[in-house]
Hints:
By secondary structure, the chain is mainly α. The chain contains 19 helices and 9 strands.
Amino acid sequence: xxxxxxxxxxxxxxxxxxxxxxxxxxxxxxxxxxxxxxxxxxxxxxxxxxxxxxxxxxxxxxxxxxxxxxxxxxxxxxxxxxxxxxxxxxxxxxxxxxxxxxxxxxxxxxxxxxxxxxxxxxxxxxxxxxxxxxxxxxxxxxxxxxxxxxxxxxxxxxxxxxxxxxxxxxxxxxxxxxxxxxxxxxxxxxxxxxxxxxxxxxxxxxxxxxxxxxxxxxxxxxxxxxxxxxxxxxxxxxxxxxxxxxxxxxxxxxxxxxxxxxxxxxxxxxxxxxxxxxxxxxxxxxxxxxxxxxxxxxxxxxxxxxxxxxxxxxxxxxxxxxxxxxxxxxxxxxxxxxxxxxxxxxxxxxxxxxxxxxxxxxxxxxxxxxxxxxxxxxxxxxxxxxxxxxxxxxxxxxxxxxxxxxxxxxxxxxxxxxxxxxxxxxxxxxxxxxxxxxxxxxxxxxxxxxxxxxxxxxxxxxxxxxxxxxxxxxxxxxxxxxxxxxxxxxxxxxxxxxxxxxxxxxxxxxxxx
Length: 513
């Protein structure tokens, strides 16, 4: 099993995904353990002084004005976890919770939080045991950290609340810890606060969304090429010299991907004589690299933000190397929230242009010789008419999900926390958008491959043939009379979501970006 070593200098997107989705084992580096101990020494020294220090010897948020006596401080730390574990709604997915916990551990190990080494080790032990705290959908405003989600995770470390075991069974957290030989932690000064105060949930969802969208953007380049081919379009618009004079990096990548898929096609460039010669293709075909390219550049920006956040230590207050413990606002989720919203916008637009190509394939007035709705016997058969309805419904929801969450703010904590990021909400809706985008691309794939197969006497590109063969081998049927369509569409979605489309064409095209 892959092992991820947590040090003091942050982590990588690859490590987050390895832990969240691949159940990678976690180890703390000797450097991290030393940094934890050093920072804890600073906190212990401050705790012994009479002067109040936020998070160490005071209340929290709007209650920070109260000085807490030493005999109540352990109770203070327990209480912040219990009271902040106030989430409601459906359970959050296991991979999100694992990413959330791992990223909090990453910050704890930075040496800027003042948490004892044994608390960090317990966090690693819980993850390694496959124990997943129950975290609920609602409870984070994306400022002062993802408070409620992180509180539910900290509650598990204390042996309280419910958690899911490695076999998927829900049990009291104390029982699961005992079954794996893990002692519950007894929190001391600052530790409860340090376990709650970060952007870890929204960041974990951003990292996973970026990985998924990278795969979907490559898949969308392939389906756009298949649609161009099925519509007898021209691949001349993909020429590198055309994209070099508008040098957005993503645009050139998308055009190169489409060109690689279409190499050797016998369908491209067949300008048919309808009412008038077709001298250029519709925007949804001709501008596919420009739209997908702009989205790719947005992914690159979001990845830069994610990498910076992965290298950050987000807590309040923080322990500085010179021994100061200072309050700050680094927990504000604005940088992450903005790019989460930006990704929802570009995902919606990619889905929108894919749906327009699908609709064109199904319309006999615009498909240049294909049967209505790609039906076997139009009128008796409805073909893919309602598949486009489903795709359109998904696109419509994508547009609603593209409304920014980060443009909203609602005051909390008696106006002490009077501006919040809503980054968790942005991340939650992006996850839905990513799932919808996969389905939209799957419908375009289903329609485009059927349309290519209906072009009798014309030979598709070798990469297209490979895609069609792999899709059929996956159980997705080709042209023919009407049948129960939902299973085919679901299978096509799995094919796209799992990267099988890319795997099918790359042996022909070479690696696609």
